[in-house]
Amino acid sequence: MLAQKKERKKPAEAKTTATAKKPLNHQVYDFWKDNTERFVTNDGKFFVYGQNPQEGDGRVVIRDLNGTKEDSVARGSGIRINNDSEFAAFLIKPQLKLVKDAKRAKKKKEDLPKDTLAIYNLKTRKVEKIANVTSFKLAEKGGSWLAYQLGAAPAPKKDTLAKAAKPAKAPKKENDDNGFRLVVLDVKSGHTETYSYVKEYSVSEDGKWLTFASTGNDSTIKAGVYVWSAINHTIKLVHEGAGKHKFTKLSLSKNDGQLAFIADADTNSKTQVRLPKLYYWKDGSEKASLIADETSQPGVKGWLVSANYTPEFSNDGKKLFFGTNPVPIVADTTLLPDEIVNVEVWHWQDKNLQTRQKVTAEQDKKRSYLALYEPDSKRLIQLGDQQLTRTDLVNQGDADFILGTSDLKYSHEHWDWNPKQDVYLVSLKDGSKKLVKEKLEGNVRISPLGKYAYWFSNPDTAWFAYDIAKGQTIQLTSNKDVNFADEQDDHPDFPNPYGLAGWTNNDEQVIVYDRYDVWSITPATQPVLKKLTVGRAQKKQYRYVRLDRDERNIDLSKSWLLSTFDETDKKEGYARLNPSTGEAVKLYEGDFKTGNGVLMPKTADRYLFTKESFRDYPDWYVSDTNFKSVAKITDTNPQQKEYSWGSVELVNWLAGDGTPLQGLLYKPENFDPKKKYPMMVYYYEKNTDNLHTHFAPKPIRSYINFSYFASNGYVVFVPDIVYQIGYPGQSAYNCLIPGVLSQIDKGFVDKERIGISGHSWGGYQTAYLVGQTNLFKAAEAGAPVANMTSAYGGIRWDTGLTRQAQYEKTQSRIGGTLWDKPIQYIENSPLFYAPKVRTPLLMMHNDDDGAVPWYQGIEYYMALKRLDKPVWMLNYNGEKHGLGKRQNMKDFAVRLYQYFDYYLKDAPMPSWLGEGLPYIEKGINQHLEPMQK
Questions:
Q1: pLDDT single digits (tens) 872-881
Q2: Which GO BP terms apply (predicted)?
Q3: Distance (Å, whole) CA 261 – CA 322
């Protein structure tokens, strides 16, 4: 039975004239564009970026920053620029239509349209194209050459084969097993060298070496591993093998001509337990040497060299790190399917839940344990073991220890999502472990040069550092005068820290944040804290901007660029700080949002940055380093000026308990306060910091698009919600309902045309609110928890973790177990208020939702259905918590807007809403058309 609609006046409509802007519609999505893969050349002369529609063929744009010239290459992606700013390289994808047509024609993978390599010369502005390229690589910090791999050569035509003399032996085919041609191209000279049947290749960071593995062609190149020198353009066979030998994980040192790789000499592809071997080569050596195998690896007796860990050289090249692992567990392949027992034993003392073990099974199969080889001394040392769940290199591997952590003693506490771990330093001299911190509740990191281990301790709500040389733990902050953790946190759990920027030169000071300011802390027995900014009095937040992507330590002798955010009016911008004097100078600020970082060329004094607002896409701008001259350099969506858009403003009201609150109010273009508008309400905790966020029109993954609704004549209200522990549902009511009433009181909201929508946590609150009030004409709840009592003991299937922490400590905010606080679980569950629901409800809950089990949606749907309430549930088969497939996102956008337009704007009822969609028509008919009268 459908909810009856009262006869009433039509809602306010936008004026239409010959020059009126168009409202956004579902057809605009595909051609709305985004800027991706942003790069500025090291010399600062060119900005190279991808510009792609949401669906269709994009382009790579090359913008001259010293002028206004702009070139583009259609369908480019995967941009790389060489270190000397000479050329940009990228792949050109085939036309999307050609690919789709080929797939519809059921063509084989090898017969689908191929990529093309484009090499754009930044000096001559000419582009060279090389067809049928599958991948390419160039050095990060040197060289004017690149290497690329070609796809299989086209098979000769049948008539050509017939005329040709029959060969004595069929030629070796290029395929995934045999490999493909690898070409080395010197871009400056155009000189090329080609090597056949290459399976894997790698380039050194300094651009002096290339290594590759070939299965050989029995004539000009043997099977094995090769190194190619960029200095003299010669190749050297460093390890010879048979054609069926496998060589993987080719790894070159950064700059001194060393190579490590994994070899598998077993030619029987059906062997289940492989015996990988680690080989090492250094410039000047004739052949690679066997370093470790199943008989000589440094781990536990019987362990193997890991085939899943890519060998890694330390920054100085003096150490080679690799992995070892136990012999894998393999299945008995002689058993028939009906002889195999598949059973899970859920043991009460399992370290990890069976569901968690299932999620991590593939990762666990590939788990390896860190080991070390020192080329000079030829020592092999095992560093990691099965008691250490994680190991991290220190100072890029140059330190004489690594950092190790273990959560095994605490992993059985499945109900607590806060990490707990023991922290160790592991000696590279003998593999011995030194305990740094037992049961650390937080995440530990290591300073860039390895002088300090540091962490934020959750129970102490404080930063700590461990002086490695002195073996001393230092509490850096105390919260007596300054709080370095979230002051506004309203969860029944420890608040999160505001974060840090990094360490200064020589690991002398750590730069941390409070709510507003930047602080330097010098670790000592009595730590020295120095506030570098003065943001708190102005309610202005300052944060360090990293300009050099290779920066490891922050330089105190240079001025810093800081981003700024005004908490009161939400303005953002940039300031310059002299860290020595504490002087901060405002450079640039306005009613916009920054957020894509700042690009700065290595050898030019200019910044590239974005700014956006609700009306303005985050286009890119270029400026001098004082922001005196700012110029827009991209115009991504010029078509937007053809469409109605709207505006946004901050609004204020008091919650039911008197708490001052803020929200966002989006208004249609040419808003007339004398008219009555339908209003949509959307919310998810706090959103007011998004005042200047741009929302491009796009299909819906999970939540409504504010731009679309404003463009189509809706007012959209987005209130902030604050919570009282134990009462999340009541808290939502306390904040949201007075906010909605405050907008009605302004006179331009049609109180009988108000809709509400929320997803996940917002979906739960929507389901709760419709059981508490009849204020809304229609509601949509995405993936809602309907019954906290049944959801409490469930599983988050994407992670395999129990949901208990969700309610006890995190977002659901009950603050206790089900048996400690049963009344709160019941009182906050929408299911128990189902008889009171008078609002039509649309739900979207998918059967592969890994965050909120879709049985929660079913519980609520079945309750409302039995009570004869108007309820619909959309289940996109195989989709997760939010939609991922574009066709489903488009479909949901259409249905959601049809639903609200019907109830709030008297639009025609779509067939699916009035009559449903029979199962036998699923995937065939969508029933989106209006119902026949």
A1: 999 999 999 9
A2: proteolysis
A3: 10
| Chain mean pLDDT for the chain | 94
Q: How far apart are CA 815 and CA 250, in angstroms?
A: 51
Q: Are 908 and 877 in contact (CB under 8 A)?
A: no
pLDDT tens, position by position, 781-820? 999 999 999 999 999 999 999 999 999 999 999 999 999 9
Helices (H) then strands (E): counts for the chain: 13, 53
Average pLDDT over residues 90-99: 96
Closest residue by Cα to residue 316 from 398, 258, 206, 378? 398
Nearest-angstrom CA–CA distance, 787 and 830: 7
| Helix 761-769 × helix 728-744 angle, to 10° | 70
Give 655's contacts (C-beta < 8 A, 6+ positions apart): 661, 722, 734, 735, 738, 739
Q: 669: which 2 tokens? A: 């273009």
The mean per-residue pLDDT over the stretch 820-843 comes to 98
Distance CA 741, CA 753 (A): 13
Which amino acid, 840? Answer: P
Distance separating alpha carbons of residues 671 and 646, to the nearest angstrom: 8
Nearest to 806 by CA among 814, 729, 784, 848: 814
Are 759 and 797 spatial neighbours (Cβ–Cβ below 8 Å)?
A: no
Q: Compare 153 and 154 and report the one with higher pLDDT.
A: 153
Among 425, 323, 424, which Cα is nearest to 380's?
323
Q: HEC states along 699-768? A: CCCCCCCHHHHHHCCCEEEEECCCCCCCCHHHHHHHHHHHHHHHHHCCCCEEEEEEEEEEECHHHHHHHH
The pTM assigned to this predicted structure is 0.93
Q: What is the largest CA-CA distance in the chain?
A: 93
Q: In what order do the strands lie in the sheet with 390-392?
A: 390-392, 401-406, 420-427, 433-441
Which residues belong to CATH 3.40.50.1820 in the chain?
640-921
Residues 527 and 515: beta-carbon distance below 8 Å? no
Q: What is the CB neighbour count within 10 angstroms for residue 329?
A: 8
* 3-class SS string, 473-539: EEECCCCCCCCCECCCCCCCCCCCECCEEEEEHHHCCEEEECCCCEEEEECCCCCEEEECCCCCCCC
What's the CATH fold of domain 640-921? Rossmann fold (3.40.50)
pLDDT at 7: 47
Q: Tokens 């968690």 appear where? A: 356
Q: Tell me: the pLDDT tens digits for 475-501?
A: 999 988 899 999 999 999 999 999 999
Q: Which of 258, 304, 301 is nearest to 278 (CA)?
A: 304
Question: If you count them, how many residues does the chain have?
Answer: 933
Q: pLDDT tens-digit profile of 248-278? A: 999 999 988 999 999 999 888 888 899 999 9
